[in-house]
Amino acid sequence: MSETETPRVKISCRNVWKIFGHDPQNTLNLIQNGMTKEEILEQTGHIIAVRDISFDVNEGEIFVIMGLSGSGKSTIIRCLNRLIDPTSGQIFIDDVDLATMNETEIRMTRRHQISMVFQQFALFPHRSVIDNVAYGLEVQGIPKAERRERAWEVLNMVGLKGWENYHTYELSGGMQQRVGLARALAVDPEILLMDEAFSALDPLIRRQMQDEFLNLLTQVHKTIIFITHDLSEALKMGERVAIMKDGLIVQLGSPEEIVIGPADDYVTEFVRDVPRSKVVPVRNIMKDPAVTLYSWQGPKVAVHEMRQNDVQYAFILDPGRRLRGVITRDEAKQAIKDGITRLSKLVKGNALQIGPNQPIEEVIPLAATSDNPVAVIDEDERLIGEILRTELLLGMTREDNGNDTKQ
Hints:
Layout: E1 9-20, H1 24-32, H2 37-44, E2 47-58, E3 62-66, H3 73-79, E4 88-93, E5 96-97, H4 103-112, E6 114-117, H5 129-133, H6 135-139, H7 144-157, H8 173-186, E7 191-195, H9 203-216, E8 223-228, H10 231-237, E9 240-245, E10 248-253, H11 255-260, H12 265-271, E11 292-294, H13 299-308, E12 313-317, E13 323-328, H14 329-337, E14 353-354, H15 364-367, E15 374-377, E16 383-387, H16 389-397
Parallel strand pairs: 3-8, 3-9, 6-7, 7-8, 11-12, 14-15
Antiparallel strand pairs: 1-2, 1-4, 4-5, 9-10, 12-13, 15-16
C-alpha cells in the first residue's frame, strides 16, 4: 500500500464492555448511573473486565494490545472471535457485526477467517507434528493428502522441515510454539489472534521467535492482533500499540508516539527505561543530502560541489535518483589526475544505507564502520536523506520532545 492510499479497516471495536457476573446488563446500568468499578465489585460482586473500548485495526497491520495481568487485554481478544460475548458494544469484521452471526456462522468464521495462537501451545501429544498442523484443515473437511501437503508447506515456512513425523512432546518449547503457529497459518486465515504467544518461552528463544515471526510476515499477508504484558515485545512487534489498564485503553499510538509522548504517569512509568534509539525512527534525525551528483557527471564537478558545501563526500545517483555509491573529495581529485571523466567509473556500490522507518539503533553499527555518512533510501532505492554522526548522537540522547519530530 502506498502512503497516499487510505488503509482498509479489517476489525472495528465500538464501545465494547465486558462485565462478568450473573446480571451484567443491570450492572451496566449502575455504571451509567455513576457507580464506580470498585463500588460495583463490592456491592454486586460483578467484575468489569473491559470498559467502553473502541479501536480499529487496518488490514495487514500488526496491532498490539499491551497490559499487565487483569488489564482486560485477554478478555478483549476473546471477544473478537466470540469465545466470549461482549456485554455491550459492537465488533465488526469486514463491516459484518459479529453479534448478528448465529452459531454456525461464527463457527465458520473461526475455521476459515480467524485463527488463534495461545500462550500454552494446546497441542495434541498423541498426534504427530504434521497432524497437529493439519488439524484445522481436518476440521474443515479437507482430504488427507491435501491437508498434509499444506501442513508440510507451512512447517517448512516456520523452520520445522524434517520434524513432521515427531510427536510434539519430543520438541523443545520454541519448536512447539512453531507448531502452534504453523497450525494457525495452515488454514490460511485473514486474521491471526495471538494471546501471549511467546510468553512461555525462555528470553533468548522468545527473541528469536519474535524475529522469525516478523520475518515470516514478509511472506504471508495477515492482520495480526498481538497480546502481551511485555512493553519491549509490544514496541518491537507492533505498528500501533494500545496500552490497557483496568479495562481501559489509556494510550493508543505508534511505538514512537508512546515512548516520546506518554499520555499519563502510568505510561510514563512503563517507558521510563526504554532506550529511545529502539523506537525513534531514522527519519526523525535524517538531514537533506549535502551533495548529490549524477553518474554521468565528472570528478571536477564533484570536487567543486564538495568544496562549495564544505564536505568531504558526495552521493552518486543514477538517472532515477537511485543511490549508486559515495565518492570522497580525495577520490575525486585522484580521478582527475588519472584522467577519469565520468563518476560512473568510480561507483563501487559502497554507500552505507538504511530505510527511513528503521530504528536509530540500527544505524549505530553502520556509522561505526566508516567516516562517511549513512544514506537514507526509500523502498525504490532513491536517496531521501543522510545521517550525520552528530545527529545520530543527538537522536539517541535528546530529551526535548518538541525537537524529536522532523517536520
